[in-house]
Amino acid sequence: MKALVYLGPGRRAWQDAPIPAIREATDVIVRVDAVTICGTDLHILNGDVPAVQSGTTLGHEAVGTVFDAGAAVSGLAVGDKVLVSCISACGRCRFCRTGSFGQCLGGGGWVLGHRIDGTQAEYVRVPFADTSTYPLPDGVADENALMLADILPTSYEVGVLKGRVGPGSTVVVVGAGPIGLAAITAARLFSPNRIIAIDPAQSRLDAARRFGADTVLGADGGASRTVTDLTGGLGADVAIEAVGVPETFELCTRLVRPGGHVANVGVHGRPATLHLEDLWDRNVTITTGLVDTYSTPTLLSLIATGRLDTSPFITHRFALDEMEEAYSVFSHPQDTGALKVVLSRR
């Protein structure tokens, strides 16, 4: 088969690789029918995730068809169409038993495309299949379900729920890339009073408006003053960081009101300064998190009933063997306007 293999910082290749085989009785082998690229994959290629070893197949999001199943797999059969979650869960450890699947101690967590070979290939081995895949409801298209492998559950759980977005909230989303747009989409489910999006790229501000932001602001240094004016001097109830660089995290801490929440969603590769000299007396709550994907069944049901539409995220489509071209388009959104790319088996 072919796979997109990480060869060290700045290096990747779409090359021959062995078709994976069942290793544990709880594994399935999934034939990949649709896959996407994540900003985290770009962080890996930049060298920001040193745990990823050279020779690893990248990717942690896919929809596919069960090709083979281990003897202990009880909830799936060969031929079933499934969503492969970005998080694997043993289902037995202390964290899995409380729904914190991202912190799995039993060999799961974020492993695909990180500690084991991932989904940007023609076939992928998925561990703990019964608790790490989700059967697709009837009528849900592959590419629409694919948006629930990572970005929607991540923004929903780590941004909106941890940030405690609620009816009447003022929400600021810093960064209007796919994760930021997913945060806007998820926040709208809770009827906030106002959503403000901040990004330096006009194309992404335009996208933020399409996704439901009420106000869009460029990152030109005037955001703090504008947010203060829009909120009667208070600041945002919730500031969601959706980029993963020190400057955007620190901006969020300046935009939030006393007693408000900063929900960090972005993947950080460099240290950020925590200005406790400004924050210590403001009762600000700061949360971080790796997605657990406990919300995936809920989000799938919202797609199946027409309450959630993920199709606007998809801006470019490719064949699976056009992986290199897809990476080039996705990694230059300022030139291509890319949000999410989908590569499908044809």
UniProtKB/TrEMBL annotation:
It comes from the Bacteria. Its cofactor is Zn(2+). The keyword Cell membrane does not apply. It holds the Pfam family ADH_N. Keywords: Metal-binding, Oxidoreductase, Zinc. GO terms for molecular function: oxidoreductase activity; zinc ion binding. InterPro entries: ADH-like_C, ADH-like_N, ADH_Zn_CS, ER, GroES-like_sf, NAD(P)-bd_dom_sf. The keyword Zinc applies. SMART domains: PKS_ER. Residues 10-343 form the Enoyl reductase (ER) domain. Belongs to the zinc-containing alcohol dehydrogenase family. This is Alcohol dehydrogenase. It comes from Sinosporangium album.
